[in-house]
């Protein structure tokens, strides 16, 4: 898990409003870059400020990075402790290749937590090519349910493509695609939608759209590759004496055999009941103990009888 860091308000860094056009952002950057350039500036901490200005410009000049940044940036104040939300960039459609290693620019941990080692170069403009040529490939991250990986599904997925309007401001073009989610898909895998990328030039073919799949957080299950785990609460006598209990799984209810002396945290494996594949993953039931409350006199007496029968001090190991 990423450690909290200080949020950076790129608009404040450049001294422009959130409604600034691309030209406004360029002018502000050029002015501040001249002011803080280490070769000429006599300002205190000029080099650090020059880097901050360059980082802000790398995001705000790029319609795609800017749109993604705007999605959550307005909820934070400059200098506030910040942790990027999970899958914060899902649903945004980006032109060109996948985010790739940087060009040597010295970006902050905050920048890299959002965009990885993304190039400082803008991805918002179409690359120039021959009069007739193939359109650019597009990339996006989409979130599906774990159950879709077990059963396969068709889903209507909405994607937003950041573009510049006639006034040089970022707007979002939204489209919805009917996408087949194949049985056995894993988080991090990519689906290719042929011809759904950028338009071709001069009658050339369209590019492709590559969808990186992530799973939505689940209230019950945790995923690690093809393996899935969940907590199974047991009564004390079930855990100690052994039992067969009915438990839900993403593929339906199954009978789970609980061996004797199953302590808290023990993993009980259901082989092959993880995410389907060749081979399939495993499903792990992690033991927890559900201690019943003593409400009636008979239940209270049952606990007293247990205390008398066992007489063990559970804190003995702490006493050495």
Show the helix and strand layout.
Blueprint: E1 5-6, H1 10-14, H2 22-36, H3 46-60, H4 63-73, E2 81-82, E3 93-95, H5 109-115, E4 138-144, H6 146-151, E5 153-164, E6 170-181, E7 190-193, E8 209-215, E9 222-224, E10 227-234, H7 236-241, E11 243-247, E12 254-258, E13 267-270, E14 283-289, H8 297-310
Helix pairs in contact: 2-3
Tell me the name of the CATH class of the domain at 222-319.
Mainly Beta
Mean pLDDT score: 85
The tally of beta strands, per DSSP, is: 14
| Backbone CA Rg | 28 Å
Number of helices: 8
Helix/strand class: alpha+beta
Q: Give the proportion of residues in helices.
A: 10-25%
The topology string of helices and strands comes to EHHHHEEHEHEEEEEEHEEEEH
Task: Give a brief description.
By secondary structure, the chain is an alpha+beta fold.
Task: Provide structural commentary.
The protein is α+β, with helices and mostly antiparallel strands and 320 residues long. It has a domain at 222-319: HSP40/DNAj peptide-binding domain (Sandwich), CATH 2.60.260. It is 25% helix and 25% strand. It has 8 helices and 14 strands. It has helices spanning 10-14, 22-36, 46-60, 63-73, 109-115, 146-151, 236-241, 297-310; strands at 5-6, 81-82, 93-95, 138-144, 153-164, 170-181, 190-193, 209-215, 222-224, 227-234, 243-247, 254-258, 267-270, 283-289. The strands form 5 sheets. A 4-stranded mixed sheet has the order 3-4-8-7. β9 and β10 (227-234) form a beta hairpin. α2 (22-36) packs antiparallel against α3. The protein is flat. The two termini are 35 Å apart. 24% of the residues are buried. Mean pLDDT is 85; it is low at 97-104 and 117-129.
